[in-house]
Amino acid sequence: MTTSRRQDVFTVDFEDWYHGIELDPADWDRLESRIEIGTCRLLDLLDEAQARATFFVLGVAAERAPDLVREIAHRGHEIGTHGYGHEFVYKLGAEGFRADLQRSLEVLSRLVNTPVRGHRAPYFSITRASPWAFDVLQECGITYDSSVFPVHNYRYGIADAPRFAHEIQPGLMELPPSTWRVAGRNVPVAGGAYFRLLPYTLTRFGLRRVHAEGEPAVFYLHPWELDPDHPRLSLPRRVALTHYHNLSTTQVRVRKLLTEFDFAPACEVLAKYACDGRRAVGNTGRFSE
């Protein structure tokens, strides 16, 4: 039984443990693939809670585990795109981003029967440096994006971007990961390393504060976060801290989260959101400094 009446969004960045730690892609093939371990644990947790999610699938990961992507869709979860090669959007440039996105959509079209309408950039890397990304997304048939994180981070973020779902430009919705507004700053409370670094009670409180503002919460996770036994590499201290800290607690925390909140795929929550008429336009490329 859930304690929240509001339907929130559960999202998964479907990538293997080594994709997001900025290793040379030439080294990927020599590393052990463990994406099935964490994904299967997560799928079972979602089934247990009768919850459904949106999986933003990395193209190169889908090519290595096509049956797993089919299984995700078979269990009723939405499939979105996470791009193909896990590269920073603002480093790719418009044409490079278009090629990467189209390649990912081609991979996914061979695995699932439904159109792919959602996108999340690797590293949340749609920033002020890449305002052209929204036009590219629409040209490729994407109707909602979940890449603009309204926080300051050394790799991503637009700190003064809108905190809640909004129409970023006509025909394209933006769905930011949830933050809690504290002392004039946005504190990330809904996923990834923040979910493991911060006390669970803060995550719960942060999501409920989002509800108090009349909005659905948006949570995100990676499959490798439910696989604490994946290989440990020698990494820069900041990367090692965010990647490896508290992995052994993730499964317990996710089970608790799924018990206390009611989750659904992004497409369904956004459909209800649009029906409520909450479609404020905000152009990310023009936010004030």
Shape: globular
Radius of gyration: 17 Å
Say how many strands there are. 11
Order of SSEs, N→C? EHEHHEHEHEEEEEHHEHHEH
Largest sheet: 5 strands, parallel
Query: Helix- and strand-based class?
Result: alpha/beta
For the terminal residues, how far apart are their CA atoms? 44 Å
Strand content: 5-15%
What count of helical segments does DSSP give?
10
Helix content: 25-40%
Mean pLDDT: 92
Summarize the structure in words.
The protein has about 290 residues and is an alpha/beta fold. Helix content is about 35%, strand content about 15%. It is built from ten helices and eleven strands. It has helices spanning about 35-50, 60-65, 65-75, 90-110, 135-140, 190-195, 200-210, 235-245, 250-260, 265-275; strands at about 5-15, 55, 80, 120, 145, 165-170, 170-175, 180, 185-190, 220, 260-265. Strands 1, 2, 3, 10 and 11 form a five-stranded parallel sheet that branches. A four-stranded mixed sheet has the order 4-5-7-6, sandwiched between helices. Helix 1 (about 35-50) runs parallel beside helix 9. Residues about 280-289 have low confidence and may be disordered.
